[in-house]
Amino acid sequence: MRNPLPPVPGKLLELEVSDDLRRGTPLATLIAAPSEEDGDAGLAEIGGVRPTGKAGDVQTVPTGGVRWLAGVGDGEPKQYRKAGAALVRAVSSALEEDVKAGQKAFRAFAVELPEDAGAEHVEELAFGLLLGGYRFTVTADEPKPSPRTVRLITRHKDATDALERVRELAAAAAFARDLANTPSNVKTPAWLADTAVRVAGDIPNLTVTARDEKWLVEQGFGGVLAVGGGSAAPPRLIELEYRPRGATTHLLLVGKGITFDTGGLSIKPADGMHLMRTDMAGGAAIIAAVRAIAALRLPVKVTGLVPAAENHVSGSSYRPGDIVRHYGGKTTEVGNTDAEGRMVLADALVYGIKKHKPDAVIDAATLTGAMKVSLGVRTGGVFATDDALAERVTKAGERVGEAWWRMPLLEDLAESVQGSLGDVQQAPGGPGGIVAALFLREFVGDVPWAHLDIAGPARADKTYADVVPGATGFAARTLVELVASYA
Ligand code: BES
Ligand code: ZN
Ligand code: ZN
Questions:
Q1: Which of 4, 125, 204, 374 meets the CB 3.0–4.6 Å disulfide criterion with 80?
Q2: Looking at residue 104, which CATH number applies to its domain?
């Protein structure tokens, strides 16, 4: 039987920049919404179609040189992302229809940009085109036909350089989506580790090491072993080291790698439990970001750590009331086995800081359902012990189109994570996202630290901007851009 899983990472559309149209390539053109000067009648017809110009609208022209009209609304860069995403979806459906109708499948299409489109517009359009058509299906059928190449018709000279960066950023988001979308019957901690090792492949200056359960026992990773102990698939620690020559700044990125979260003995309700296959989205963002950082040859030392475990129910599960000894010796009183993310992150944070002595630490995790209540599903929460670092994260997010909001590490709640039987308490109650962050802070010490809680935006159930339902790859692009800000 052939492997029903799509390749991970999947292939991205190829982007080319050109200043001339090639005959025979189906063409799309971008159109701004009518202004007041256009009057009540709106825009002039093209091939018998009156364009709306609305961002996200794609109209098909039945005859003539142009096949699609894609609206860009007020022409702000952000609308170009929306237009690119809507366009690539429309082009893919048209291709499918063509094939069904027995016509020859086109492999490339072209998009003509308005004269005044700048580098930022080109970048946003590219994000939309590269990610808006993203699909992940596990099927016995042949994959649906999709276009391979898109040619951007622009005279903008910087476009090619700008696109190199965008391509890596989009590849990082898509790879993070692939990892998080992979079902948990395939995605064991060992699979995740092996995939990270394989993908690092021959990228210069990048080494990926997968540590097994034996190593974790020897080293005393009590949090990872407690959480992973209930599963038949043993835990791993994935360590990614990017060491460009001459770099001085060293950043540590840590990601929650729970390959499935049943909640453990504090079991989750059945409704929605299936969504917990994306509970390693933070880890996926780290793996994909480090890969992209190395591929872009950014001159910054980066270490990525992904403690990977499955939180399952069995006779060897950890229990509420257990006291767990983390790497480095600190002990945690377990209150709720469903608060497993912080258990594995605590080990990895202490290990990473002790071993690598980074200048700053950033972790990313689908840590608390409470964050979905606080910020909804399109914005990530940033908790930080350092204002400059928090600002850097938010600004990096703005540059790549991911929204972040600073959350407080409320001092009057710090008391609540202090233990009575052990050193710290894992799930003391109170505002979920904040208390979880305060717990993690106990394991960080003095190094500047930012904690990104992405429980909301890591997955989507609606299509918006360049996002499609399923895993979004959220945080991967922000992390690459954040590291680039230290270059
Ligand atoms: N993986 C969940 C958090 C989550 C919830 C992510 C919904 C994405 C969507 C996490 O491990 C968890 O279960 N957290 C608990 C903590 C509680 C038991 C203290 C939560 O948020 O309810
Ligand atoms: Zn979880
Ligand atoms: Zn949980």
A1: 125
A2: 3.40.220.10
